[in-house]
Amino acid sequence: MAEDCILELRRVSKAFGAHQAVSNVSLAVPRGAFFSLLGPSGCGKTTTLRLVAGFENPDEGEIWLNGSRLAGPGESLPPYRRNVNTVFQSYALFPHLTVRGNIEFGLRRKRADRIEERLRAVLEQVQLSDKELRRTSQLSGGERQRVALARSLVLEPDVLLLDEPLSALDPQLRKQVRAELKDLQRRVGVTFLFVTHDQEEALSMSDFVAVLNHGAVEQVGPPEEVYRHPATRFVASFLGAMNWIDGVGLRPEALRLSRQAADGSRRAIVTGKTFLGPMVYVEATLESGETCSAQASNGATGFQAGETVHVSWDAADEVRL
Amino acid sequence: MKRGIAAYAVGAYAFLHAPLLILAAFSFNTSRFTVWQGFSFHWYAALTQDRELIESAANSLIIAIVSTALATAVGTLAGYALWKRSIGWISGSLYLSLATPEIVTGVSLLAFFQWMFRYLNLRLGMHTVILAHVGFSLAYVVVVIVARLRSFDPALEEAALDLGATEWEAFYRVTIPYLAPAIAAAAMLAFTVSIDDYVITSLVAGVDSQTLPMTIYSLARRGVNPMLNAVSTIIVVLLGLMVLLSERLRRT
Amino acid sequence: MKRLRSVFLAPTSVILAATLVAPLAIVCVYSFLSRGAYGGVREPLSLENYTRLWDPLYGLIFWRSFWIAGISTAICLVLGFPLAMFIASSGRRKTLYLSLVILPFWTSFLIRIYAWMFLLRDTGLINTALQAMGVIREPLPMLYNDGAVILGLVYGFLPFMVLPLYATLERLDASLIEASADLGARPFETFFRVTLPLCAPGIRAGAILVFVPSLGTYLTSDLLGGSKTILIGNLVQNQFTAARDWPFGAAASLALMIIATALLFAARRSGEELL
């Protein structure tokens, strides 16, 4: 195992009939990291997660956890023999059990000791101590998510797998829960493998982001690196808007608009603008015919359609592929 | 237009329910003729004296309980297995058993049993009736169970596996609790269908396994009989309550 | 997982083999054999039983069964449609009204037929009441004829017509009705040119769900029709009991079964449109 990686996927592939869901994926997840799998729907991120969990078996490749092999050609451990646990997108809380019943389910299956003690501790951790005897149908969305987390964390897995756990929450709740989740991970120290299609989520929460497309990994790295130095056009456009001027990539926030020409600036005609509150997006067409979108502070609302402006940027902000 | 339809509906519901209500009403008639002569329970009392009725009722009850228990258990497992992955000939056969006219099921079972009895030293009796009943109740149970499973989130079973349960434990501790109301509803349905069966039972019952419907049939052929009204009322009320309960359970 | 599934399906497979597959196979085989000397069956194999079904005597029975089943179905359609319309437009009480239709069916079929015997026979309630009121002097023969059988079938299978009709009506897009009115059609025209055609899948499903059990009925024609009304079901039962001609009975059963299953497959396709 490379460095201190707790989870490793080596050239894993999985197809469903004619559809290749995961194609030759290799990943090395460092111990204790918040590691995200990011990509559009159908990119294979959920399938990858399910391969690690044991709900699917790889056609090719191997999966290693903490020095032992989970899956490989021929043999594959069933989910109940892997030391990983999943937080499902719908949470999959057992409706016929109380909060307590749900959380202690795994402990009872393994006939663990000190069940009471561990139950108390995890309830504290997710702040649900007073809701122990409630039925899951009586909980709010955020509370249900915490039960799902507690249920998995109490088993002390090597890696916690999370399948788009925030998508079922209201948008306002999401930002708050994001922070709580990140904080929880840091406190508990468990490695998180987090699947999402929301790049804001991935960038704000992760230590590492793996961007997937059509079943393959396009780039892996810390959020800042993946954003500022995308390795492919797909990664560049997926992680935020990207302008392409003369084959060079430029983020909207890197472009500056001015009524005065400057060294190296280009002329453009304003074609429209979109007011978003804290900022304004100004669309303009360059002499070459290419269009671009520049992010300006809302002080720059003065630009009108049809006006001539000058677009400039720093060379350091250029993305060359 | 709306009032016309509502008035019509009253008539339609009267048509559907009046016959049974009238039957029940006349079970309390003191006279044995269809002229009302006063209120009395004595036909109900007379039921307790009729040995044939009581014996056949007991037979019917035994047959219904045993066949229901078997059909429900077997059908629940089958419904679950088919929900996971459908097997052509089994699903097809279950549909076929619902589609086949009762008389055809009855004579084919009779033919099969008689053929089998050339090699086994057996005769028609309670056991053949019970087997027949399990056979035709099975499809009803499977339909109810599969319908309930349609709203079951497979992630619940995966979660159980994820948390350390084996496939059997997941089925037993997560799926079965979810299915509980449907299992009860299916059992009641199977019971109702078994208690009422005449056509198939009459063909495969032996000499000493007369059931209640068979007794009712022979009484009905002989003429109007207030005791028949009485036993009919009891049966209709009991089965009606059972069906209502079954529907309630299915909807939880 | 696969092991669990096979274990779960094993008892069902055995039961289906023993109560459905094997019996039907035997009936199939018997239908090509001949009647034995003391009942039972013997060789040779032949199509004689099937050709015998074409005999006018039996042809009449089949024709009568189709006729009676057809009339019952038509009556169910006429009676059931307004009832389905009522339920579909009854708002919150839909489930209640629906249960009231279905509930009688699930009590006892036999007893429900007896109820009509109680009402229709010469000494039954209707005749007694009419005589008491002086409307008639002699009892009307309302029982033991085709009419009584049709009445019994309509009474028994009306819910099977109402349910699919209700399902289609419920799903009907009200804006289509409004559009029709908007384009100038009067209520009568809208009903026949828009509502009814749109209900076609429900009508088809309901018709088959009433026709098939009516075609294969035994009890209704036996108790309400007396010995005058012999339908396919009665023919089959007779061959296997009194007449002791099992091979012929087998052939008649298969004929009935093939017609029934073919029609029901058509209903399933219609039913899928409803889903």
Q: Gap between N and C termini of chain C, in Å?
A: 31 Å
**Biggest sheet overview of chain C:** 2 strands, antiparallel
Average per-residue pLDDT of chain C, rounded, comes to 88
CATH superfamily of chain C: MetI-like
In CATH, what is the class of chain C?
Mainly Alpha
Helix fraction of chain A, binned, reads 25-40%
Q: Taking all residues together, what is the mean pLDDT of chain A?
A: 91
- Assembly type: heterotrimer
Please give the number of β-strands of chain A. Answer: 17
DSSP, total strands of chain C = 2
- Strand-residue fraction of chain C? under 5%
Please name the two chains that share the biggest interface, counting residues whose Cβ lies under 8 Å from a Cβ on the partner chain. B-C, 83 and 80 residues
Overview of the structural elements:
The complex is a heterotrimer of chains A (321), B (252) and C (275). Helices cover 25% and strands 33% of the residues of chain A. With 321 residues, chain A is an alpha+beta fold. Chain A has helices spanning 45-53, 99-109, 115-125, 141-153, 171-188, 199-205, 223-228, 233-238; strands at residues 5-16, 19-30, 34-38, 60-65, 68-71, 84-87, 159-163, 191-196, 208-213, 216-221, 243-245, 248-250, 256-258, 266-275, 279-286, 291-297, 308-312. Chain A folds into two domains: 5-234, Rossmann fold, CATH 3.40.50.300; 241-313, OB fold (Dihydrolipoamide Acetyltransferase, E2P) (Beta Barrel). Chain B has 252 residues and is mainly alpha-helical. Chain B contains eleven helices and no strands. Chain B has helices at 2-26, 42-49, 51-84, 88-99, 102-116, 126-149, 154-162, 167-196, 199-204, 212-222, 226-250. In chain B, helix 1 packs across helix 11 and helix 8 runs antiparallel to helix 11. The longest helix of chain B is centred in the first third of the chain and has 34 residues, at 51-84. Chain B is globular, with a radius of gyration of 22 Å. In chain C, helix 12 (232-240) runs antiparallel to helix 13 (246-274). Chain C has helices spanning 2-30, 48-53, 56-88, 94-106, 109-120, 125-132, 146-171, 174-182, 187-198, 200-215, 219-225, 232-240, 246-274; strands at residues 34-35, 41-42. Chain C is globular and about 70 Å long. In chain C, a hairpin with a 5-residue loop joins strand 1 and strand 2. Chain C has one domain (49-274): Orthogonal Bundle (MetI-like fold), CATH 1.10.3720. The relative contact order of chain C is 0.13. Chain C is an all-alpha fold. The chains are: A alpha+beta (321), B mainly alpha (252), C mainly alpha (275). Chains B and C meet through helix 1, helix 3, helix 4, helix 5 and helix 6 of B and helix 1, helix 3, helix 4, helix 5 and helix 6 of C.
